[in-house]
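Dear Dr. L.,

I hope this message finds you well. Following up on our conversation about the binding site, I have prepared a predicted three-dimensional model of the protein together with flavin mononucleotide. For your records, I am including the exact sequence and ligand specification that went into the calculation, followed by the structure tokens. Please feel free to forward this to your student if that is useful.
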Amino acid sequence: MHDIAADRVEYHGQTLDGVNAATSPYALFRSWLEAAYEAGNPEPTAMQVATVALGGDGVPRPSVRTVLLKEVDERGFVFFSNYRSRKGREIEAQPQVALQWYWPALARAVRVEGTAVRVDRQESEAYFASRPRGSQLGAWASQQSAELDSRAELLAAYARVGEEFRGREVPCPEHWGGWRVPAGAIEFWQGEPSRLHDRVRFTREGTSWQLHRLAP
Ligand SMILES: Cc1cc2nc3c(=O)[nH]c(=O)nc-3n(C[C@H](O)[C@H](O)[C@H](O)COP(=O)(O)O)c2cc1C
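The resulting structure of the complex is given below.
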């Protein structure tokens, strides 16, 4: 059994001294993502999406899961999923979300806060069309987040849709598509020795960004 309390990694990264008010946080994100690929991080686009739902008692209940980033530019961060899934229902009711990436090979993390908006239908359809056929069929077969009696039930649904779409293109389900999260805040975290990490947070002020340095 690992002694998890004693498990410690000492981080040594480039500091964020070069980051200043003229830095575009989206450009910086892209360069960190590229560096994460180069450093050999598996699936560097994998990110956590946190949502929050109000329970019947009015108490907020956050939840988090992993998805893949599929596009990023100055308009925001895009991911795709099932609009009827738990996250889908939660985002539609309460679109304030938080995102997070952690790239261990570089001791780097990025956090984003923003309000999710559905991407255009055409954008969802174009991305869906680029997916492997198996994943397209999976999107039809899986009522994501619904309870299943057995795995066999899912495999039977997959076989059924495979038959249904045999010999033709698989269209994008109405209930499947993307959200874009324009960042209201983006934080870059670089691990440093002695837990004296570097943290820089950009907050959106109108059309420009404000830069804040945060204690680790
Ligand atoms: C590495 C990784 C990537 C994933 N990518 C996606 C994705 O892009 N879209 C998606 O809907 N689910 C993705 N999932 C599955 C989700 O984490 C989650 O199980 C699913 O979306 C249901 O979440 P929900 O019940 O909160 O809606 C991924 C899981 C992992 C571990």
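In brief: Residues 9-121+176-214 form a domain with the Pnp Oxidase; Chain A fold (CATH 2.30.110.10).

With kind regards,
A. P.
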